[in-house]
Every structure is written in C-alpha cells, then in structure tokens.
Specification:
The structure is a single chain. The protein has about 525 residues and is of the alpha+beta class. The protein folds into 3 domains: about 250 residues, BirA Bifunctional Protein, domain 2 (2-Layer Sandwich), CATH 3.30.930; about 110 residues, Herpes Virus-1 (2-Layer Sandwich), CATH 3.30.40.230; about 100 residues, Anticodon-binding domain (Rossmann fold, 3-Layer(aba) Sandwich), CATH 3.40.50.800. About 40% of the residues lie in helices and about 25% in strands. It contains 18 helices and 23 strands. It has a 7-stranded mixed β-sheet. Strands 20-19-21-22-23 form a 5-stranded mixed β-sheet, sandwiched between helices. A 3-stranded antiparallel β-sheet has the order 5-4-6. Strand 22 and strand 23 form a beta hairpin. The longest helix is centred in the first third of the chain and has 27 residues.
Length: about 525
C-alpha cells in the first residue's frame, strides 16, 4: 500500500511539473476537488475525447452526436429520480470531525483484503518461478479462497443494505469490520445519513421571480429529452445511439484521489435505443465492444476487469463496470447499464408528451429500451497518465523518467531539436517545424544539451524527437528518436510526415477494436 501511495504522489507531482494539471485557483490556496488542465493536459484530454468520439460516432453509421445545455428545466431532475434518489451514504467521525462516504470506507477495506491476495500471488510466483500457474493458484490456494469469500460476503451485504436503504446495517458493517478513520484511527462513528449530490442555482434577474435550477449531475438526461428531436430529424431507425460529451457537477462531500472524484468533471456517454426484449444481447455486445476500445490503447489486459453490480440503480435491470487498476487499486472507469424504458417513460409521464418510436416493421409504437455506456473523461485521463508514468534503469546504470502515453493520445507528437544554436541548424529545424505543425502538435526545443532535451521530452510524454545536425545540411536527413525504445534512425526529411503519421494515426490504433 505504501508503494502505491508513493506512486500516486509521483503522478500528482509529475502532472503539475509538466503542465498537465494544476490545482484550481492555486494562488488563493486552491479549491478542494477542483482542478485546471494545463497546456499539456488540455491536449491529452482533447485527444482522449476525439479517440472516443471517432470510435463511438464516426465508426457507427447509426450513432450520432449531441451537445445539450447544462441548464435544464427543473422537472427533468424530478422525472429522472435525481431529486429524490441521487444520494450518497455519509458517515462522520465524532473525534476527527471528518466526513466519509460509508460505502467507500467499506470498499477500501475490501481493497486491503485484495492487496493481501496480490501479496500471496507475488510470493508464490517468486517461489515457483516459470512453473507458476496464477489461475490454478487463485482457484485452489486455501488462504486466497478464504480472502475472496470474505470480500464477496462484505460486498454482497453492503449492496443489499444500500438497496434496501438500511443505513443502520451499513454502520453496523463498518463497526463489525473494525474500520477506523483513515487519518486518525478513531472508530467513533455517527449514524449513516443520505446526502443529495446536486448543486442548486437560480435562473432569473430578481430573487423574487428566479427559478430554482440544478447544475446537471449527468449528461444522459439531455439525450433522453431530445430523443424524438434526433430520431425524427435524423430519420433514425432502432437500434440507434446518441452520444454526448460534456461537463457534469456533483457536490461530492468526500472528493478525493486527485481527479478521480471531482465536483466538476466531464463525461462521455452514449445512449443506445433498442427494441424491448433485446436488452440482454445489446448489454453483452457493448460490454465487449467497450473493453476492446480500452485494450486498443495497449495499456495491458491485466489492468482491466469487469465488475457486475450487486446493487442496481433504480432504472437498471443489469449493470457492470469496466474497472482499471489505478495506483490506489481497481476502481470504476466505465459503466455499461441496461436502463430499460425507465427514462423515456418517466419523461413522458412528467412532460405529458409522447416519447415513443413508431416501428414500421411491426406497424406499432413503443417506448424504446436504453443501453448506456458512460465513461468519465477525467478518470480516463488519470488511467492513461498513471499507467504511462514509469521510472526505468538504463544500461549505463542511470535512470530516466518516461511518460509512455500511447502515441495516438500524446499531447505533443514530435519535438524538433537543432543540435546546436548556430551554423544554420535552427533555421533548418524551423522549416521542419513549420511543415509538420499543419498535421500534428509539434514542439521546438533548442535549450540545453541534446541528451538533456531527450530526457525532458521523455518525461513530458513526447513519442518522437527529430534532431537536426550538420549532416542534415548535406543530405536532407535527420535523426528520428523513439521515446519508448530510445532507438534512433536516420530518416529523409521528406519521409518524416508519413512515418510519424502512421504511428499516431487514430485509424491505426482503432482498427485493433475490430
């Protein structure tokens, strides 16, 4: 656990040092759980968004995009259930005066048990070497089986208690497990209470006539209320999807873990409208399709897993998360939810407007069911960044810090480095810069020795460096250096664009999803 915490601190520090993420309003001592994306971070975030959009919208002829407003009529949130049911179970420690999410305290306790399993596996792997069979060990080792049984029992009880809103049993579970305040070790807890997460605001010029509104806690409802607008104007036939990216806001009392849980965040959601009775097959289809998208980035199959929900949301008949192994353990990255016809039926009920689809093949109207995929853009950013940050020992005994961001997502694709700041090399380097900048994000760096510049670009996540030297002036070739392997090759200037474009092109990466 200490090693994980150290790694996470390095992630946070590195993100700031290299212009990826800054604490919001830092000159005024910041604002809790609110962050700003710096010059590198905004590019990485944009590239992740575009990688999702291309895979979700451009590659599917029956999925289209939408950009709904953040402000919505307040009845929207009554219909969706957010006014009455969008709550977190919170618990206070009487001694430290700290407030925590009760379910997260229990989940963190389970994560510690999971860490014990990992420790057992690592010990066995060392003992047996190449002959070690991880799957067989996990399925037969008595200690591992006991730990897994304990984890399952805890999570099942937690899910059941939350579903029944038995908050007294959630507190009892915390006490039975001996869970202490993470900061002080105190076990002096209050009762568990529900807390609504929506931010309230006002719309109107005067206090007397202003309408009470909410900042949207999710982007999905903007899709549902526009279902018929999109379907009719786009002449869409079921099954079809509507995709959207945008900001959402939640009054997270226990916001933590850097950008993993924030009060202002961005979602990438797709609602897929389907014929009732087909939800099971589409649920399995999108579970598999979304995992393939994640795996296309090459961040390691072992870092992902499915987690089926014990406690289903009020709108769902099936739900699963794709979890990623963050520095603080496996946590939700993306959700796949079978939402039934809850959303459209509720908005029809509260608005008095018909939100049905006329099926020409069956010659009848019905309320479509919905299959949702929902991923947090900020969480995806953290997954990519935390996995990419590595320290490695080189053959000469030195170490380098390298940010192995998948080249397709890297904020800067290539850095142009004149070997020295004289002899016409900067001028030649500028020509290459001006040519490549039309097609990709390019950096120009002429300060310090070239080796130091390589290290700086490695740590910033730039996948390629182009060094312009005296030989360049003689034969129009440059040195192309690869970040991950540090391999260097001599390349003709005229071939640079095609060579680099192939490595960073979204098509090259997304074809792995097939």
């Amino acid at each position: 656990m200490a090693k994980q915490e150290d790694q996470f601190k390095k992630v946070i520090s590195h993100a700031k040092e290299y212009g990826y993420i800054f604490p919001s309003s830092e000159i005024y001592d910041g604002l809790s759980a609110v962050y700003d994306y710096g010059q590198k971070g905004v590019e990485l975030k944009k590239n992740i968004r575009e990688y999702w959009w291309k895979a979700m919208v451009q590659m599917h002829e029956n999925i289209v995009g939408l950009d709904a407003a953040i402000f919505m009529h307040p009845t929207t949130w009554k219909a969706s259930g957010h006014v009455d049911a969008f709550n977190d179970p919170l618990i206070d420690n009487k001694d430290s005066k700290k407030r925590y999410r009760a379910d997260v305290l229990v989940e963190d306790h389970v994560a510690k048990i999971e860490a014990k399993i990992e420790k057992e596996v690592n010990k066995a792997a060392k003992r047996f070497g190449d002959a070690f069979d991880k799957e067989q060990f996990m399925a037969t080792n008595p200690r591992v089986l006991r730990y897994r049984e304990e984890m399952d029992a805890i999570l099942k009880r937690l899910g059941s208690s939350l579903e029944k809103e038995d908050l007294a049993d959630v507190k009892a579970l915390i006490e039975e497990l001996g869970i202490a305040d993470p900061e002080t070790g105190s076990k002096n807890w209050t009762d568990v209470k529900q807390f609504n997460l929506m931010f309230g605001t006002k719309l109107g010029a005067s206090a007397d006539s202003a309408m009470d509104l909410y900042l949207r806690p999710e982007t999905a409802q903007g899709i549902f209320v526009n279902f018929l607008n999109v379907q009719k104007t786009g002449r869409m036939k079921i099954p079809f999807g509507i995709a959207q990216t945008g900001k959402a806001f939640r009054n997270e009392i226990v916001a933590r873990q850097f950008i993993f849980r924030m009060r202002e965040f961005e979602q990438m959601e797709m609602q897929y409208f389907i014929k009732p009775g087909t939800q099971k097959e589409w649920y399995e289809y999108w579970k598999e399709a979304r995992l393939k998208w994640h795996l296309s980035l090459g961040m390691g199959e072992d870092n992902y897993r499915y987690h089926d929900h014990e406690k289903l949301a009020h709108y769902a008949d099936a739900a699963a998360d794709i979890e990623f192994k963050f520095p603080f353990g496996f946590k939700e990255l993306e959700g796949i939810h079978s939402r039934t016809d809850f959303d459209l039926a509720k908005h029809e009920e509260f608005s008095g407007k018909k939100l049905q689809y006329f099926d020409p093949e069956e010659n009848k109207s019905y309320t479509p069911y919905v299959l949702e995929t929902s991923i947090g853009l900020d969480r995806m950013f953290l997954a990519v960044f935390s996995k990419a940050l590595q320290e490695e020992e080189l053959e000469n005994g030195s170490t380098r810090t390298v940010l192995r961001i998948p080249a397709v997502l890297a904020p800067t694709k290539v850095a142009i480095l004149p070997l020295v700041k004289k002899d016409g090399l900067p001028e030649e380097a500028r020509k290459i810069f001006d040519e490549l900048k039309w097609d990709m994000q390019v950096d120009y760096d002429e300060k310090d020795a070239v080796g130091r510049r390589y290290r700086r670009q490695d740590a910033a996540g730039t996948p390629f460096c182009i060094t312009v030297d005296h030989e360049t002036l003689e034969n129009d070739t440059v040195t192309l250096r690869h970040r991950d392997s540090m391999e260097q090759q001599r390349v003709a200037i005229k071939d640079l664009k095609d060579l680099i474009s192939k490595e960073v092109d979204m098509r090259y990466w997304l074809e792995k999803c097939k």
